[in-house]
Amino acid sequence: MENSNWILQFLGRLHPLLVHFPIGLLFTGFILELLTLKGKRKGLRDGISFMVCIGAGFAVLSALFGWFLKTQEDYTGNLVDNHQYTGIATAVLALITALVLKSSLKKSPVNLKAYRIVFFMTVVLLTIAGHLGANLTHGEGYLASVLPGNKDNYTSKESGALLAELKSVDTLSELQKDKLNLEVRGLFAHRCYQCHSENKQKGELILETKAGVFKGGKTGLAVVPGKPEESEIYKRISLPANHKDVMPTKGKLLTSDEIALVKLWIDEGAHWSDQAVKIFPEAELALVKPELPKVSEESHPIDKIVSTYFDDNDVSWQALIDDRKFIKRAYMDVIGLLPEPEFIDAFVADNNSNKRERLIDDLLNDSENYTQHWLSFWNDLLRNDYSGTGFITKGRFQITEWLYNALKDNKSYDHMVTELLNPDKESEGFIKGIQWRGVVNSSQRTEMQAAQNIGQSLMGVNVKCASCHNSFVSNLTLDQAYGFASIFAEEPLELNRCDKPIGKIAKVNFLYPELGSVEGTTLKERLFKLSKIMIDKKNGRLYRTITNRIWERLIGRGIIEPVDEMDNDPWNAELLDWLAADFIDSGTDLKHLIKRIMTSKAYHLPAVNYKSSEHLKQNYVFEGPVLRRLSAEQFSDAISQVIAPVYVAVEFNPNEEKMRALRIWHHEKDLTNTVLPLPGKRYFRKEFKLLKDDIKQASILISVDDAYKLFINGKPVGEGNNWTDVGKFDITKLLTKGNNVIAIEGNNLGKIDNPASILFAMKVDFEDGKTFKVFSDKTWVSTNKAPQSNWVNLNFDDSKWMEVRDYGTNNWSKLLEFTFKEHKETFVRASLVKQHPFLKALGRPNREIVATTREEQATLLQALELTNGAFFNGILEEGAKQWRDTYGNDSNAIIDMLYQKLLGRHPSSDEQKILIEALGNEPSIAQVQDVIWSVLMSPEFQFIN
Fold this sequence. Notes:
Pfam families: DUF2231, PSCyt1, PSCyt2, PSD1
Number of strands: 20
Keywords: Membrane, Transmembrane, Transmembrane helix
Organism: Winogradskyella flava
Strand content: 5-15%
GO molecular function, one term: heme binding
Largest sheet: 6 strands, antiparallel
Protein name: DUF1549 domain-containing protein
Number of helices: 35
Helix content: 40-55%
């Protein structure tokens, strides 16, 4: 028995060696297999077959030897089990792959489809098993630890300083014992968890919990209070570096100071603090407004702080940007639009020393444009969208109307947060999250999404990692994440570690319990309490987070980066805390915060073009605003404003006229089933009765997908062939007292079954002030058979026609022009448009997750869309026609106005000369389009500088 044990133990230790063979062979074989798709490179078949068979054999051996290693050594825990199961499954699938391949090659003709599917599944499982194996070998979070923002900030300096402090006293106080214990536990976390955590219990020893530490492992008690020489953990860490039993076996050995700290802790009775160990740096929760530096040269509070910062970092104040650059920067940042040339000229000519502050006030008071610009920022942050996952199944809810009104009314941030966390019907979509189809991971349940969304967007803390296990990037634990999520749950939540229930029920709690209790017997009570403690002025984290986000939005780089990691060090803590405290003093007025930043000299400095994104992340020194690219919405709005409308309809219309008009069409049926409308003409009628003849005004609005001819009482009124062009007709003289009839010939021009519809509204105003309206609804009738020629007349018998069907609004957005009201909107703002391929190409994110920053680097997709995209080129072509119609053959006027409207200046003589040569004396539409495109692609237009 003894001999067999050492043999199995020896074979088990060959597992790490053997496992690389199936990884290499199967991966290489799969890559070669991809090269043979579509019948190519048939000469590779013998080599692939050899690799698959040998790889399958080694996969079986690796799984077997891995089982020996687990049973003969001291490996336990969920991570070990998961690695074992995926390894065995990989071996089984690899064998099946080899057998299916062999069988497929014998058939005539050869069919490799089933083999390739199984091979793909094998490689996927192999990847998962390999990743779990790497976690076992190198520790959980091994890959993630090297990513930006996930660096291990632990050093041994703190251990040395604490040791010196504790050695200087005869008797340790309770506070000092707590500090000692927390330092030792932090040391365990950084040096020992990769082998001795709840997920990987090597030697059955767990150093992650109090129970695990004092229970010990297979070799004895890890800690014997007061007796370090009898404590297995001290004996192991103090062995010579070349000893076979020295610990830790992975990573760096403990320093002499660290070993001395562990010994002192055990000597002092191995006191265990009730506080949670803080492995990672964590920002202070409280917020105290710093005193402003005594800098007489600067009057603005921000500039006083920045001036001191510049002195400390050997940075000089640069000359401020000129008025032309400033007005574009201010317009783009506050309302997201380009300033008109006449406004620019007037601003430049104005000699008032206070004109920049006055301009900022005027822009902030333009509530409609301010709201429509900043809506994109808040939609990203609050994961609010108009379409996408969850909307079809009613598992997701918009908060657009609430959000729009909150921004337009400049609702205080405290008020906004309160209504988001303790919501009514309009704002509840934020914490309800997305109800995904089918079964989801426990970390994606809606209650956990609420915790994750609030943590990230409002508090700048990552709850997602801790939703599955104790976080690898912060001090948050699984218990804390589930306690937070329980606030939003109707029933108690059972903790799941890596999607496996652990038999523990979460206790309702807030991430920062020192702010107060959120326990309550009902969901409503808990949400009310949460909304109160979140806006408590002691919760400095809430106010620092939004302050940092607004600074990043206006300056291009946060005071803390990334903006979702508020435990990171700020480049200037005094600036962040003063701004956040000033924001609180203002009554959490968001416009006040924006103005405070924009009126500083720091905002008026020239844009800095940092060499790379790394220079913005590592060793960053503030010198001025970052050179920023226009956002997807800013770029689109500028095109709509100057060239031609980019979008024709909105998903949310803030000035929508409430009507009962439905999108109707003939009820298409295939036997008894409703189907998509078939191509061809359909005929519609609606009779109505007017009781008076004192008509003052009668008007019609109509939008038909695809084409229509409209008749009133047998008289032709108008026609159209584009649903985005709203037909507006005056029919005052066509109506009579008594019975009247509306008749529409609709034509679905598609070649296959596709959506079609009529949207119709009629308004009749009488002299006495009364109004009569008719809308497209289910009282209309239709037929798919060509009727007699008199079908448009009142006396036609339509009793055999069918009731129309409401085809809903999913296929059609809202048209700004479909209103009887006078309105000032001249084009559709991109922030009101649902996700569009053009916006997506330019960087608008998918809002199924919180998106707090957008990628600044141009992508290949953007380059292709802006050079060869059919949609963009179609807009430019339409715009070129309009410019040609406006300016005719006057090439000088075209160039000059283009520069003034897009760049805010006149062209230089060289620029004028080059573009005149490009346009010629009689510019074609194509030439005008080319010139427009060249200016739009210039860095001067594309960037805010």
